[in-house]
Amino acid sequence: MKATARLHELGQSLWLDNITRTMLGDGTLQGYIEELSVTGLTSNPTIFDKAISGGDAYDEQIAELSDAADAGEGVGANADERIFFELALADLRDAADLFAGVHGRSAGVDGFVSLEVSPLIADDAAATIEEAKALHAKGERDNIYIKIPGTEAGRTAIEESIFAGVPINVTLLFDDRQYLAAAEAYMRGVERRIEAGLDPDVASVASIFISRWDVAVADQVPGELVNRLGIAVGGRAYRAYRELLDSPRMQRLMNEGARPQRLLWASTGTKDPNASDTMYIEAFASPLTVNTMPEPTLLAFADHGEVGDLFPADGGNAEAVLKEFEQAGIDVAALAARLQVEGKESFNKSWDELLKSIGSQRGVAAG
Question: Which of 50, 133, 147, 344 is catalytic?
Fold first, then answer.
């Protein structure tokens, strides 16, 4: 049995952090589903930028969409943005259809694909709520998550979107406090649905970013602490997650028909060339969670990954390791806040680059 299958058997969902029109059309994604136990996928602006600018697979649709986009039709604030959402939704509908069997078998727990709102409106809760609702409706699939960052404004949008029945992937979370704040927004949305007599079963995941922690401190800590911060922070978050699952509040919600928001391990590709390329996948082998991984990481884990002990529900030695980092001068709480701000800025930059790529492709198509 492949390591990917063993990971799936222990109760973790394996998602691919990538999508291209080529892999949808040539059977690559279908192969990952059948052979590597992949049950969902995530996307982001950088992934779509590489896909759109990396070949001619999107050129025909870009040319077809240009006139409509210029006329202001569809979701998005400008022509290039409207074209992007049409391109992305076309791909995500196809991907969602490939995962429809998983979605059905799991009764709506698994088999999701993800699309994020424009990061340029991240600080505008009202605009985020409106765009999340519009994108999900336009997606025309039950198994499409809309990604909203877990910032202060984002939390307002998360609560309102869950209340509106929109499945949400909360992104840009870095530690247990940010995760718990996002979980609070999710639960408030569900509780309001119960009070209003609505179905409380609205799917959601909360995405904790891991590898960026180790990149941030690589040059600031002694050698014995290199590549240990992300796993320790994840341990603290996993303990908070498991405690929340067992809490009276969550038990009451589940008794009413709600399902817990699942914890998702994100940014799990190893950035250090001297470290194991399956380090984070092996570390975060944990039931009741999702691990979304870049394509090279997925293939590496399928080839030579190992499934050992499950991640301890109490976080294992996370607190002891985090204390070592504090003693080494790392303010973990302050770094979490900084990483979220930097992540938001990085998303903005990726979004701008994506729209520039689409603008360039439009120019080529017009020529």
Answer: 147
